[in-house]
Amino acid sequence: MPARIPITSCLDSSQGSGGTVGVSFSVEIEIAANPTFSMASPILDLISLSTSFSVSKTFSLTSSYQCTVKKGKKGQLYASPIIVDAVFQKKALSQENDDSDWSAPFKVSVPVLCYKVYRRIM
After folding, report:
1. Of the four listed, 14, 29, 39, 80, which is most buried by Cβ atoms within 10 Å?
2. How is the chain split into domains, by residue range?
3. Other CB atoms closer than 10 Å to residue 117's CB: what's the count?
């Protein structure tokens, strides 16, 4: 099991009246293209033309987590990365030897950009 990483401070209500602990994450990705086209006349440089345009798309993802801690308890939020096993093979590529064999399959465990969020109430 992957490690659990604290993502909030611990809210200690053992002597208090309770409360809420929480966290928010936000990721924004923008993809843009800015092509430009230019043309100049070879005759005395009399005509010049230039045009450009921009195309973009923005993706955003926001996640919020919160946990209510009752009177007399302690609470904290943890995250654990999700691990996926991927099986790979490799092959040497060269101009001299196009008939090289593939390697034996090998497994690699890699974390993905997702996390499970857990709460811990004590």
Report:
1. 80
2. 5-33+55-121
3. 16
Burial 44-80 (b: 16+ CB within 10 A, else e): eeeeeeeeeeeeeeeeeeeeebebebeeebebbbbbe
pTM of the model: 0.48
Q: Under a CB-based contact definition with an 8 Å cutoff, are residues 57 and 33 in contact? A: no
pLDDT at 1 (0 to 100): 58
Task: State CA 44 to chain mean position distance.
Answer: 53
Rounded to 5°, the CA angle 7-9-12 comes to 140
Nearest by Cα to 75 from 21, 117, 115, 23: 21
